[in-house]
Structure prediction request, 101 residues.
Amino acid sequence: MKKFIIPIVLVLASMSMASCQDIYESAYESEMSYKAKKENPELISGSLESYEAEFMQKYEAMDEIERRRYKAYRERENKRAEREYKAMKQAQAEAIEMLNN
Prediction:
């Protein structure tokens, strides 16, 4: 019996964590779409107001704990994006150096 309960609990826990992650991912995607549209209006279709409303709806639907977790998720994603950008710039610099030597 114990062998059956533990996997079920683990699956349920992972599913709840995944659904929370989906909420944060969706809100982050909406936030980034808003920022992209704000920086370069021709980059993506849709209105700035629609992206703002979409993000605000998702953020306001979160409770206080979810908002704190979203902020932590957002910080991690921003740091990851920054690392990837630095790695890309480093690779570009290396390629340019090889072309020039």
Summary: Residues 2-39 form the longest helix (38 residues). The chain has one domain: 2-100. Confidence is low (pLDDT under 50) at residues 4-18.
